[in-house]
Design brief:
The structure holds 2 protein chains of 2 kinds.
Chain A: H1 2-8, H2 41-45, H3 53-56, H4 61-76, E1 92-96, E2 101-105, H5 113-124, E3 127-131, H6 138-148, H7 153-159, E4 161-162, H8 169-173, E5 174-176, H9 178-183, E6 192-194, E7 202-206, H10 213-225, E8 227-230, E9 233-236, E10 241-246, H11 259-263, E11 267-270, H12 279-288, H13 304-315, H14 321-331, H15 349-355, H16 359-362, H17 384-400, H18 408-419, H19 444-461, H20 469-478, H21 486-506, H22 511-540
Parallel strand pairs in A: 3-10, 3-11, 4-7, 7-10
Antiparallel strand pairs in A: 1-2, 5-6, 8-9
Chain B: H1 2-7, H2 11-19, H3 21-34, H4 40-61, H5 66-82, H6 94-102, H7 107-110, H8 114-131, H9 136-150, H10 159-172, H11 179-188, H12 191-198, H13 206-215, E1 229-235, E2 250-254, E3 257-261, E4 269-275, E5 278-283, H14 289-304, H15 314-321, H16 326-332, H17 338-341, E6 348-353, E7 357-362, E8 368-373
Classes of the chains: A alpha/beta, B alpha+beta.
């Protein structure tokens, strides 16, 4: 059996993508790959049989993470779905059935969200929720991540928190030592025996929606603030990647999951069904009695230092300004709610939510096209945390793909998984009534991706890449006020007022206009204050 | 697997397989799931005929390594049989040659890291096969390394040094695009082994050989003689026969390299590497395509100035090229008749030259002729 496991443990050693895609040699079938004298020992000796260490010596951490991805996707998981699609040319696509369901064949390296996102979560040290029916590999995937982080199966098994209705805070965090409890004269003298999992860099909470509400609150402190508290004692947890599993997509279960806890989840991944065409592989797995998490190749196990280095490299990935602007534009649609306040700043869904009044009671017909208003499709806006997480995961996927900066497709592909639980759908919005859109009430990944596409279409219609007055004024403002004289300040104030006057005549108040108007107000206020200070200092001199 | 154990003539292999019988059987089942056509009897034959002598040789040297060697042989044999590279229906004889003629001669290297050594050599054989559809390059490479092994030149080598020797041997046998790194590797080899692999004339000092190879790509290691123009290589073939050319190719000299356009598609460029030991077409990096197209146009213009048909004389080329391209003038300054050096069918479709070689393509062929003064 040990030898079979050796075969199972094999990791293909060839680089998973060319080191620099832009300089990739163009190779025809049956011909050697080499460009400009780069053919080396590794090129000669690497291949399908086994690769010498020379072939992998130059591989970077991104390649190692891709090796890990491919090992999981091709070996550990029997039927992966390639739902994160990348194409560098128009993909071949086919339509099926009366609904014209499309299948596209991506022509660039594409990925399975169920494998990729947990891996990215591991290196970003965020919180990943794996949802799906029983027996779809959610817990196994979480355990695999623990093994990839260098923990033994024994450690991981001991550390998994299995949600169950009787779970207490002591079960979760630890116990005061009875002897110290009896002898202690003060709280400081009580010794707490903290649970070992609190100190691990991978934390797994299985079926978190079966944890009683009170215990969930204790879990929230650990998840949100990275410490545990008991009897005035505090345990500082290390930065960790969290994996939570739940059978119920809505976060239901034995206990309702408290909203704050759900809000802390950074990314939601669905465990998709088993493709019955892979039953033969499943049979081979059964006959061989192999559990993937027990045979993870050592080549793809990451040390703490490696994960930290990856994290550092991910953060160094650039987000190009035009792309950032599109993300800003997308995010700006959702918070605005015209009927929620009399003052512009309070016209938000958050104000509405705090009031406890139903949305429908305050909806106003302000002449907006409710089909086009993307904000009408959600019941909330995007939090700062959601935006930060989106950017972090976009950087991570770009890094994973060997890119130095985030690309449009990275955002389009990853955003739905990050905003899955962040953007609460307003299923009553008229947009869902239009032909072909009803399905998006159920398919949240597809819905968010569609929202982003619609937002980008609107962005292009408004020609904001070329003609974005707020961006221009912001750029001017961000250059600083030092050396700007009173005459210039007055000119800038006049320009802001002119833009606002123009917009007030012709523009309906949509979410993106709301944010732009408030930004203009902000700059106006800063210039006003500066102008007053200039006037004062001029008088003094 | 029981059949293998019963029939295996080599007891060492039988004993090793028997020792982990369940594991090997499970691996076989798993491999069969990957390679549906994997035949048990064929696999058995491969192990018995080709695997057993390798294990026997390593057993004679370091018997403690038998489990690892058997395991590696088993795994690589799966892969090779599954990919139809070994066995009765093998698409190429190269791996069989490798297992039969070379691996049993390398016990000292095999026992160091069986999987890496056996797998790496199999990979190299497939790389060489891909570079030369006739498989002769692979056969020469196996023979060259076998000769070195028989002369005990590989005896005390580390695996890293052996890797370098493999690269040098591959270059010496015709893998022209390995030349830059092979030259570097050559300097790191023990001179006796390097000499065995490169085979320069015996009267030449090794110290004078290396600089010559670095400076004269078409020097084959023989003593200097009178220089003549000679067709050094004819490379490429129609894609229908497994080659790279979708149409009669065109060639040009650009950025210090020969570039060959294999198809109308603007991305179908290959680099032509040629030297005294062979010529290969390898992947080309992306470059400024306008500049490349211009270089190609010049090659075509040069060709169009030649008379139609196969009767091309050096005088023709010299006359037309002395004001166009002085590199050509250097090349054709020899008094030989180019037509005698180039036997391709006409008309010539492109013509280009480096300091050392002339590359000619024909509108009536999918091949590329490399002519050099040697």
């Amino acid at each position: 059996m040990a030898s079979f496991l050796d075969a199972f443990r094999r990791v293909p050693q060839s680089p998973t993508i060319p080191p620099d895609a832009s300089a990739a040699p163009q190779v025809l079938a049956g011909q050697p790959e080499a460009a400009d004298g780069d053919f080396d020992v590794a090129d000669l000796l690497a291949g399908p049989f086994v690769a010498p260490e020379a072939a992998t010596a130059v591989a970077g951490l991104d390649d190692k993470l891709r090796q890990a991805y491919f090992w999981i996707a091709n070996t550990a998981i029997i039927s992966p779905f390639y739902d994160i699609e990348y194409s560098d040319a128009p993909p071949q696509s086919y339509s099926f059935g009366d609904d014209r369901t499309r299948l596209s064949l991506p022509c660039d390296q594409s990925y399975s969200s169920f494998v990729l996102l947990p891996l990215l979560n591991l290196v970003l040290r965020r919180r990943c929720l794996l949802v799906g029916g029983p027996g779809r590999g959610k817990t196994a995937t979480a355990i695999l991540m623990g093994v990839l982080a260098g923990y033994s199966m024994r450690d991981i098994k001991r550390a998994i928190q299995h949600g169950q209705p009787q779970m207490t805070i002591a079960d979760l965090l630890g116990n005061p030592l009875p002897s110290s409890l009896v002898n202690a004269q003060s709280m400081e003298q009580v010794h707490i025996s903290w649970r070992k999992w609190l100190g691990m860099r991978v934390k797994i909470v299985d079926e978190y929606n079966r944890i009683p509400t009170r215990t969930q609150s204790a879990l929230l402190t650990v998840m949100a603030d990275n410490y545990a508290e008991m009897l005035d004692h505090v345990y500082e947890c290390p930065e960790a990647a969290w994996y939570l599993t739940a059978n119920d997509d809505a976060g239901g279960g034995t206990y309702q999951v408290i909203e704050a806890l759900r809000d802390r989840i950074d990314v939601v991944v669905k465990a998709l069904h088993f493709n019955t065409r892979f039953l033969g592989d499943l049979l081979a797995r059964i006959e061989a009695e192999v559990r993937p998490e027990e045979v993870v190749p050592s080549d793809i196990v990451f040390s703490e230092a490696e994960i930290s280095e990856i994290h550092r490299q991910v953060l160094a990935v650039r987000v190009p300004t035009p792309l950032l602007r599109r993300i800003e534009f997308f995010a700006s649609h959702f918070e605005f709610f015209e009927g929620a306040g009399s003052q512009l700043e309070y016209k938000t869904k958050d104000t509405l939510k705090l009031s406890g009044i139903a949305e429908a009671a305050l909806e106003t017909d302000a002449g907006k096209d409710r089909l086009k208003d993307l904000g009408a499709q959600t019941r909330n806006g995007l939090s700062v945390r959601a935006l930060m997480t989106t950017l972090a995961f976009c950087k991570a996927v770009a890094w994973f793909r060997g890119r130095r900066e985030v690309e449009f497709e990275d955002v389009r592909q990853i955003m739905p998984f990050v905003l899955h639980d962040k953007l609460v759908q307003n299923a009553d919005a008229p947009w869902f009534e239009t032909e072909g859109n009803a399905v998006f009430r159920v398919d949240k990944v597809g819905w968010i991706r569609r929202l982003f596409e619609l937002s980008c279409a609107e962005y292009e219609r408004l020609n904001l890449d070329r003609d974005d007055i707020v961006a221009r004024l912001s750029e001017e403002f961000e250059r600083g006020l030092e050396g700007v004289d009173e005459r210039q300040v007055r000119a800038r104030l006049a320009q802001i007022e002119k833009v606002l006057a123009e917009w007030s005549r012709s523009r309906k108040l949509y979410g993106h206009v709301f944010d732009d108007v408030l930004k203009l107000k902000y700059m106006h206020q800063r210039y006003t204050n500066y102008a007053r200070w200039l006037a004062w200092s001029n008088r003094r001199t | 697997m029981s059949q293998l154990l019963d029939d295996a003539p080599v007891q060492v292999l039988a004993r090793e397989l028997n020792r982990n019988r369940d594991g090997f059987n499970a691996r076989f089942s798993h491999a069969r799931a990957r390679f549906r056509g994997l035949s048990g009897s064929e696999f058995h034959e491969v192990l018995r005929e080709l695997g057993a002598p390798v294990l026997q040789a390593s057993h004679d040297r370091v018997p403690e390594r038998d489990p690892e060697v058997a395991s590696a042989l088993f795994d690589v044999a799966f892969e090779a049989c599954g990919r139809r590279l070994l066995g009765r229906e093998a698409a190429t004889p190269s791996l069989k040659l490798l297992w039969r003629d070379l691996l049993p001669l390398l016990p000292q290297l095999v026992v160091q890291n069986p999987r890496r050594c056996i797998g790496g050599l199999c990979n190299a054989a497939t790389v060489l096969d891909a570079a030369d559809a006739s498989r002769q390059m692979t056969a020469r490479w196996i023979e060259l390394l076998s000769q070195a092994a028989r002369q005990n030149a590989l005896e005390n080598l580390s695996l890293e040094a052996f890797d370098r020797a493999c690269l040098v041997a591959a270059w010496r046998c015709g893998l022209a695009h390995a030349r830059p790194r092979a030259l570097v590797s050559l300097k790191g080899l023990e001179p006796n082994l390097a000499r065995l692999l490169m085979r320069p004339d015996e009267e030449l000092m090794w110290e004078e050989c290396l600089p010559r190879w670095e400076n004269k790509p078409f020097w084959n290691g023989s003593s200097p003689t009178e220089k003549t123009l000679r067709t050094m290589a004819i490379v490429g073939d129609w894609s229908g026969f497994g080659g790279a050319m979708h149409q009669p190719p065109l060639a040009c000299f650009f950025n210090g390299r020969f570039w060959v356009r294999c198809a109308q598609d603007s991305g179908s460029w290959r680099l032509l590497w040629a030297d005294a030991f062979g010529a290969t077409l390898a992947g080309a990096p992306r470059v400024d395509s306008l500049a490349l197209q211009e270089a190609l146009r010049q090659s075509q213009v040069l060709a169009s100035r030649l008379p139609d048909g196969v009767e091309i004389t050096v005088e023709d080329v010299a006359w037309r090229c002395q004001w166009r391209d002085e590199r050509l003038q250097v090349l054709v300054s020899a008094s030989d008749d180019l037509a005698s050096a180039w036997s391709g069918p006409g008309p010539v479709s492109s013509l280009c030259a480096s300091r050392d070689a002339l590359v000619v393509t024909s509108a009536a062929s999918h091949r590329v002729w490399v002519v050099a003064r040697v």
